[in-house]
Amino acid sequence: MTYNTPLYSALINYTKENKIPFHMPGHKQGSGISARFKTSVFDIDLTELLETDNLHAPEGPIQEAQQLAAAAFGAQHSFFLINGSTCGIQAMVASICNPGDILIVDRNCHSSVISSLILCGVTPKYIYPEYIADLGVVGGIHPAKIQEMLIQCPQAKGVLITSPTYYGICSDVKKIAQIVHSHGKILLVDEAHGAHFCFHKKLPQSALQAGADMCVQSAHKTLPALTQSSLLHVNSDRIDLPRLKSCLKLFQSSSPSFILMAYLDIARSIMQNSGEKMLNDLIEWTEELRDRINRIGKIYCLGKELIGTCHIQDMDATRVVIHFGKLGLTGYQVARELNMRYNIQVEMADFHNIICIVSPGNNKQQLEYLGQCSQQISSIIYNKKTFNRTGYIKPIFKQPPIGQYTITPREVFYSESEIIPIEKAVDRVCADTIVSFPPGIPILCPGEVVCYDIIKYISEIIACGGKVVGLEDGCNIRVVKN
Ligand SMILES: Cc1ncc(COP(=O)(O)O)c(C=O)c1O
Description:
Among the domains are: 35-267, 3-Layer(aba) Sandwich (Aspartate Aminotransferase, domain 2), CATH 3.40.640.10; 409-480, Orn/Lys/Arg decarboxylase, C-terminal domain (Ornithine Decarboxylase, Chain A, domain 4), CATH 3.90.100. Strands 2-11-10-9-7-3-4 form a 7-stranded mixed sheet, with helices on both faces. The chain has a 4-stranded antiparallel sheet with strand order 12-14-17-16. A 3-stranded antiparallel sheet has the order 20-19-21. It contains 15 helices and 22 strands. It starts with 5 loop residues before the first helix and ends with a strand. It is of the alpha/beta class. The mean pLDDT is 94. The site of pyridoxal-5'-phosphate has 14 residues, from α4.
């Protein structure tokens, strides 16, 4: 009998290639999880039983595990999430906003923030973080812009910011929290990429330590946890806990995976026992890698020297972002080269950079190898040897173009729409979230006006090998009917 299992086969074939993983999930195909926790997933794939507890009304081991998580992450209350930070962001927004309310949001947010706005009928007031044109990377959020917006919109329910970004860039959450609280509002932080921060003093201050009322963390990105497992933490008396709990029921499965929850519990325990030592090693190895790369001169690995520029308050030492723009290479090309020639899989690439997620599942040799390979690519290019430069298109944009905001994402969602060729969409209101994926940050949000530059920008990403999600058949776009 033959079994046709294309996905399963693809995964098994992939594992045979033994790629070096600089991507999520943070357990790195099990390397970050001690042997004692490597049990059969079938044995523990259980359901709500007397002995196993219920995520939506915990009073046994889930409650105990969540309390241990709260103590470890410095929260008053922690909640296990089995639909990723995505559902945590949705629950945070739903717990503080009613339909028609205003929320101040950084425009560099993940698409899950936009989906929250649609689901909850919330009107965004966008804050635009500064763009570091030399690196092609978005910087931190200027606290003064938050202050200005709070003065302009005294009726806003709160502020939702992203810190750190995918690139490990942290805003001054402490200052922002002080400003937000001085206006009597609530600060929500999307800390999807910062679940490891509280386990080492050399890492940026966590959002909770900095004064956030609530935050979400994707444990699966930087901790030895399984994909989709995340945490929502509350550290404030400003949050209506019963309402938050009912929001979590709205956005999470009624059959949560006990495998995910068990490995969240394990990830917390591993980090409490040996996280500091593991992170210490990682910080040392990534610093060595930075030194090595920055000595080459032609490529640049982002680091602490950026602190104080573009409202960057801190940098995550474990996040490795290497800028290849000065060599005339796109990040997409380098990512492909690392994959095909050197067996390295990075997390993400953009026009100028590659982004590697380094977690306790990685080791020193892997980081040294990444350094060697980056050096080799740069010297091949520098000496104009055989590297395949076809496909390189010099990016023409100094800064991603921005669509003008018109109507709320929810109004758009319920408007009549039509699908048209993207080149005919100039001046039309976008009806979808058009996302470069990863990082999942919208190029166009529902309700923003499509302009010529945005169309060029999207086609540039596609031409350079990037992935754009939200278009129909890759060349059509859904717009609001006139
Ligand atoms: C900044 C940010 N926020 C939220 C999310 C959503 O997290 P999850 O994948 O855990 O649902 C992501 C995912 O990449 C992200 O990068």
